[in-house]
Amino acid sequence: MNLSDRKFSPADEALLDYQDGDYRIVKPGRYVVCGVTGEKILLEDLRYWSVDLQEAYASTDAVLQRLRESQKA
Asked: What are phi and psi of 50, to 5 degrees?
């Protein structure tokens, strides 16, 4: 079973305060949403985020995409 096979409700979405090297849970939940892809990321799988943009990323590819977008602005 992968993440897309699991059923999550909006109530399962966590709200986090992303900090350097860690995050603080503002609203408990099971997942956050990738700021680039919209993919749901289980909290135990969360590895990448931006402190400045306060968003999570599902993969290094998503991080690189966001960095490229921000350099164009």
From this structure: -115, 125
Task: Tell the residue number behind the tokens 């995409």, with chain if given.
Answer: 65
Structure pTM? 0.85
Distance CA 12, CA 37 (A): 18
12: helix, coil or strand? helix
The two three-digit tokens of residue 28, written as one number:
């408990």
Q: Count Cβ atoms below 10 Å from residue 18 Cβ, excluding itself.
A: 19
Q: Which two tokens stand for residue 17?
A: 């305060």
Report the candidate in 19, 17, 41 with the shortest Cα–Cα distance to residue 30: 41
29-64 pLDDT per residue, tens: 999 999 999 999 999 999 999 999 999 999 999 999
Rounded distance between C-alpha atoms, residue 61 and residue 24, angstroms: 24
